[in-house]
Amino acid sequence: MNSSEIRKKFIGFYTARGHVEIPSAPLVPANDPTTLFVSAGMQPLIRNILGEPHPLGKRLVNSQKAVRLQDIEEVGDNRHTTFFEMLGNWSFGDYFKKEQLPWVFAYLTGELGLDPHKLFVSVFAGNGAVPKDTESIRIWKDIFARAGIDAGEGERVFAYPAKNNWWSRAGEPDRMPAGEPGGPDSEVFYDFGQELRLHERSPYNGQPCHPNCDCGRYLEIANSVFMQYQKQADGSLSELSQKNVDFGGGLERQVAAANGTPDVFDTDLFRPVIRVLERAAKRTYGREEHDTRAMRIIADHVRGAVMMLSDGVGPSNKQQGYILRRLIRRALLYGRELGLSGDWRYVGTLAEPVAEIYDAVYPEVRARMRDTKAILEEEAVRFGRSLEKGLHEIEKLSEINGQTAFTLYETYGFPWEMTVEIAEGKGQHPDRRRFEEEFEKHKALSRTAAAGMFRGGLADQGEETTKLHTAHHLLLAALQQAIDPSIRQRGSNITAERLRMDFNFGRKLTPDELSRVENLVNDTIRENLPVTRVEMDRAEAETIGAQMEFGHKYPDRVSVYYVGSPEHFFSAEFCGGPHVAFTGRLGHFTIQKEESAGAGIRRMYARLTPAASGN
Predict the structure, then answer these.
(1) Lowest-confidence segment of 398-402, 535-539, 548-552 by average pLDDT
(2) I need a surface site. Which of 136, 137, 424, 597 has the fewest CB within 10 A?
C-alpha cells in the first residue's frame, strides 16, 4: 500500500463520518511569530480549538505538511524525519473519546489492515492537576476485548507521565505559556517484534521493553490529543469551554507499518530519492550501516529543503532560511561521505524525484522545480567554497580535540566522523565525550530558544499584535493602491512591537512612494472604518478580489475580513483574525524600514504609536 492510497483512505474514512476535508496550510505559519514552521496539524486551527467557529463546521480532516526542528539531529535512524505529513482529524466541541478511539482502531485495523495483536496503546497517568485518564483505559480495554484480545494495563495499555502522554505546542504543562491549550493524549504503537529492537536505550532502567522506550521495536503511528485545558496566567490549568479532539498520525510511519517495514525510508516516500543516490554513489542502501545512515540523512534533508523552497522559503542566515541552509549543507556533507563531492550541484538532481513523489497532492512542487533546482545548486556551490575554507582552517590547527571538533561542527557543519578522519591523519584522537558534552549544551540552548518562541502566548493575540495585524491588511491594500495593483504578500511576521511584510516588487521604493503608502494607511485609520468578518464561498471571495496568502490552499468555505463595508471596502482579505473592530483604534502608522528580501521580493517593517491628541 503506497502513501497516496493511505492518504486517500484516511481522508475517506473521516469524510464518511461527517468530516470536511480542508487543504494543508503552508509550512510557514501566517501571522504567527511564535514558531518558524507549522509542526502540527492543529497549529492553523488554534482559534477553533479555543472556541471560534470554523466556517466548515465542527468536524475537519486533512493531511498537513509539517517540519519538526528537534528531529534534525535524530535523522539517520529508521523513523525520524524533519519534513513529514501529519494525517489529522478534529472535533471542535462535538464528539470526544468514546467516538474517537474506536474510530482510530477501526481505521488502523480496517483501512490499513494492521494486525490488532501488534497494536499497543498509551494513556496519560495523571499528575497533581489532571487525573489519570481512566476513561481512555476503559475504552481501549473494551475495543481490544471486541477484537478478542485481553488488554490488561501494563501489558497492552500503558499509562505514562506528562513527558510522554501530554501534548501542547510547548510540551508538558509546566512548560506551557499562559493561553496555550493542551491536554492528555492516547498514542497507538505498532510492534515490529523483539528481533527488530535496534539498540538498548530504554529509559526504564533495564525493565522489559516498553512502547515508549525508543529502542526501535515500537513505532508510534497515531495520537489522539484530548484538547480540553488551557494554561492560565497563575500557572493553573482550566477547562476550555469545549472539549476538542486533535488527532495526528504521521503518514510516513503509517506507510511503514502498513507495509511491514520498520524503516520509513524503505517506502515510496523516499525510495525514488535513494535510488538516485545509489546510482550516483555506486553504493547500496541497507548494506553498510554508515552508508545507509548517510543516505537517510541526505534523502530526508533534500526532501525537506525542496518542500520549504516550494513554499517560498529561501536560504539565509536567519529564521526559516537558516534552517533551510542547514538542511542543504548537512545533506552535502553526508554526500561527501558517500564520495559525492567535486561538482556539488549534483544535489539538484535529487530534487526531481521529490517532485515525482508529490505530483498528485502538491503539484506546486513540480511547478516550481526550475527555481528550486537553481537555488539548491547555487547554495551547493557556495557551500563548496565554505567547505574548502573550513578544510584550510583545519590544516592550520595544531591540535584537534573535542572542543575544537565541536567548533568545526558549529562553524562549518563538519560532522564528528569527518573531523575524526582528518584528526587521525594528523596522529590525533579527539575526545568524543567532550564533543558530545558541547553538543548537548548546544541542543539545550536550541531547545530553550525554541521554547522562547512561545512566550508571546497563543499565536500572540494580545491587544498590540491584534492592532498590527489589522494594520497589516491596510498596508497591503495601500501598496496596491499607491504603488502597483499586482503587489501580493509573500510572507509576514507580526509581534507586539512591529509588523513585517514581504511582497513582490522589483526595486526599492522611493521616499515619495513610501510617504504615499504611509499617508494612505493613516487616512484610512482616521476614517475609523469598521472591520468585519463575513463567511462566504471561496469562489465568491475570489470574485470580489479578496486578497489571499501566497501559496495557501483554501477550503471551499472561507472567512473574509473587510475594512469598510462589503459594498465599499478599502481592503478585503481571506483571514482568520484577530482584528480590531474599527480602524480608529490603531493609532498612528509609521514605516520604519524597506529593504530587499531576495530577488524580486521587498521587505517592509512598520509600527503603530498612539495617535497625537486631537486625531
Answers:
(1) 548-552
(2) 424
Residues 326 and 402 in one domain: no
Number of H helices, E strands in the chain: 18, 16
Question: Considering the domain boundaries, does residue 392 fall inside one?
Answer: no
Please report, for residues 152, 204, 610, the alpha-carbon distance to residue 212 in angstroms, rounded to integers and kept in the order given.
17, 9, 53
Q: Is the pLDDT of residue 614 over 50?
A: no
Same domain, 490 and 362: no
Residue 264 lies in a domain: no
- Residues 6 or more apart whose CB falls under 8 angstroms from that of 294 comprise 76, 334, 335, 337, 338
Phi first, then psi, for residue 78 (nearest 5°) are: -85, -5
Q: What is the mean pLDDT of residues 430-444?
A: 74
**CA-CA distance, 467 to 611, in Å (whole number)?**
13
Give the residue from 258, 281, 299 where a domain finishes. Answer: 258
DSSP labels, 207-232: PSP-TTS-SSSEEEEEEEEEEEEEE-
Confidence category of residue 411, pLDDT binned at 50, 70, 90: low
- Residue 59 grid cell: 468536524
Q: List the CATH number of the domain containing 502.
A: 3.30.980.10
Which of helix, strand or coil describes residue 496? coil
> Which of 385, 419, 438 lies at the terminal end of a domain, its last residue?
385
Is 220 in the same domain as 277?
A: no
Continuous segment of H or E residues that includes residue 534: strand 531-537
Beta bridge partners of 531: 563
Tell me which residue range forms the domain holding 424.
397-456
- Give me the mean pLDDT over the 1-29 stretch: 95
Mean pLDDT of 43-64: 92
- Report the b/e string of 177-193 with b at 16+ CB within 10 A: bebbbbbbbbbbbbbbe
**First-to-last CA distance in the chain?**
65
The DSSP element (H or E) to which 570 belongs, if any, is strand 569-574
Nearest Cα to 322, choosing from 406, 397, 379, 250? 379
The answer on 57 and 10 residing in a single domain is: yes
Whole-angstrom Cα distance, residue 361 to residue 5? 11
Measured between alpha carbons, how far is 589 from 525 in angstroms, rounded to an integer? 8
Range with the lowest mean pLDDT among 47-56, 111-120, 206-215, 571-580?
206-215
- Answer whether 416's CB lies under 8 Å from 436's CB: no
Q: What is the rounded CA–CA span in Å between residue 207 and residue 57?
A: 46
Q: Do 77 and 180 fall into the same domain?
A: yes
3-state secondary structure of 401: coil
Q: For residues 438 and 434, what is the distance between their CA atoms, to the nearest angstrom?
A: 6
The predicted model scores a pTM of 0.74
φ, ψ at 530 (rounded to 5°):
-75, 150
Please give the single-letter amino acid code of residue 396: K
What gap in Å lies between CA 66 and CA 60, rounded to an integer? 17
Report the pLDDT value the prediction gives residue 453, as an integer from 0 to 100: 41
Q: Domain for residue 15, yes or no?
A: yes
The per-residue pLDDT for range 214-225, each reduced to its tens digit, is 777 899 999 999
Q: Are 182 and 231 in contact (CB under 8 A)?
A: yes
Q: Is the predicted pLDDT of residue 587 greater than 70, yes or no?
A: yes
The residue among 314, 276, 397 whose CA lies nearest residue 596 is 314
**Same domain membership, residue 448 and residue 434:** yes
Q: What's the DSSP call for residue 185?
A: E
CATH code of the domain in which 205 resides: 3.30.930.10
Largest CA distance in the chain: 79
